[in-house]
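User: Hello, can you help with two protein structures?

Assistant: Certainly.
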Amino acid sequence: GLPLDAKLVVCVGVIDERKGVDALINAFLALPANEERRLVLAGRHSPKVLAILNQTPGAPIISINRYLSDDELNCYVNAADIIAAPYPNFVGSASIVIRACAAGRVCLASDSPWMQRVVEQFDLGLTINPRNQTAMTAGLTQCLSLSDHFALSQQAEALLAFSNMNNIATHLTSLLYDRLAIRRARDVLLWPGLRSSQGNNKPASLM
């Protein structure tokens, strides 16, 4: 089990260097010693990550080295104080940012274009250069402090409404309707202002 009285920095899914976990471990271990803080790595570990962990016995790291079901993954996200997603060379969207938002947890993310835009626009936490260990350690320090009083903004709540699977399906359907010049039948929440739209207003593209 996870300690109830410790601050938990959690990284979930495949635990490998592709997600910057090697750099995350080094940045976490560079924090001042604190018995009330743990790094939780939940998911199947790569050989490189396992090698790093074998070189740091006794470190305040909780390793769950196995495949996680979606329900288990959500449990670890909900148990977190901070969700770490310092993915280097990242392109595209990342569901972990939305999961962190849904759980009301601070997100420490990389400064890749999508992550930086979403985390900063919706006040979801902090973005850092994942290749800079000093910046990542400083980011962890800031997020640990932020987690004491973190609350979702109205924009973040609207982002969750936008990200609802029913809304995504409606959005994609409305794009098809527009392509076929058919009047839209249902409301759909759009991205830029996360506002509701009906009729023939052209919807924004999905990120």
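That covers the first. Now for the second protein you mentioned:
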Amino acid sequence: FITPSMAMHKTKQYIPILAGLLLLGGLGIGRSDSDDLASQATLRLVAERGTVTFAEGAVAVRRLDTGWEPLYVGDRVGPDDAVRSDEGGRAEMTWERPNCIIRLERASVIDLESAAVGGRLMMIGVRLDRGAVWARAHRTFRLTSPYVSATLDRATLSLRADVSSDRLAVYHGTAQIDGLPLSNGEGVIVGDSGTHTFAVGVEDDMR
């Protein structure tokens, strides 16, 4: 025989148990949602890599979290790698996305710049630390050095970095250098002594 007081006592015992089950269920759902968000956040972007189509002398690549290692014809170059050449080294790298060609001259160092574009990690520019680089790009592209910041679109040009100035020459197409427009056969020297334009000559030809 169960009295009303006994029934009430049992009901009070069930309430904490039910509350605990509901709390655990809520925590489980919350954890599942947070796990899904975390997994989505850690999805890796697909890196668009270039290919070394020419290499001469000693050329090396430095990838993220690694040291310098030799670079040969047929090797792949990531969109955020760094590449260097010694006094006798040169290299050419080609990308399909973006459609561009980069040539590294002797005794030069470049750092590739990347950005996420439509779920892919793409190379969007090159920073020249020292030496010289030649570039042909068929889409918006950025080329920088200690003194120069250039944006080009469907253009071919070269950039040399010296001790106190940098020299940029536009062979074909147009480029914006710190707000200064340059087109076919025009160049600019930017350095400690200021900015000077010039007509591209034989000494600038790295094609």
